[in-house]
Amino acid sequence: MKQAQAREERDTQDPVLVPTLEHGVRCEAIEAGLRLLREPICRPDRSGEVLYRECLARLYVQGQVRLPDSFLPQLEAAGLMRWFDRLVMERVIDALRADGDAVLGCNVSGVSAVDDAWWEPVYARLEREPQVAARLVIEITESAPLDPIAGRSFVFRLQRLGCRVAVDDFGKGYGVYTAMAIAHPDIVKLDRTLLLAAHPPMHSRCPPNPLFRCRSMRPTRPPLASSSPS
Question: Which of 90, 164, 208, 222 has the most C-beta neighbours closer than 10 Å?
Answer without folding.
Answer: 164
